[in-house]
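lol forgot to send this yesterday, sorry. struct tokens for the thing we talked abt
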């Protein structure tokens, strides 16, 4: 019987989701789905503070952030097969 997940937490998506919800769930400007984290803000100053808070919490939990996969200060993101813009509407990817 393993005492730890031998391949990390990612294959155990429900457990990982629960852990991420405990780490970030009380932040009203953060949404997460497994290892995808969306941070939204009204302006750049708020966004910088929000990103810092999320990074601090992830560091406290000893989670590693892959900088190559981070897209900071974006006005649209690709998430779960959709492209979402600043108004929250999905955009036709062929129009980009």
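and heres what i got for the seq, position by position
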């Amino acid at each position: 019987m393993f005492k730890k997940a031998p391949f990390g937490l990612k294959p155990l998506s429900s457990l990982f989701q629960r852990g991420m919800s405990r780490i970030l769930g009380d932040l009203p400007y953060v949404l997460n789905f497994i290892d995808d984290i969306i941070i939204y803000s009204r302006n750049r100053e708020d966004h910088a503070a929000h990103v810092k808070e999320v990074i601090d919490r992830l560091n406290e939990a000893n989670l590693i952030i892959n900088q190559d996969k981070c897209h900071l200060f974006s006005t649209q993101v690709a998430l779960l097969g959709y492209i979402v813009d600043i108004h929250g509407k999905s955009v036709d990817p062929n129009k980009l």
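The first strand starts at residue 30 and ends at 33. anyway ping me if u want another try
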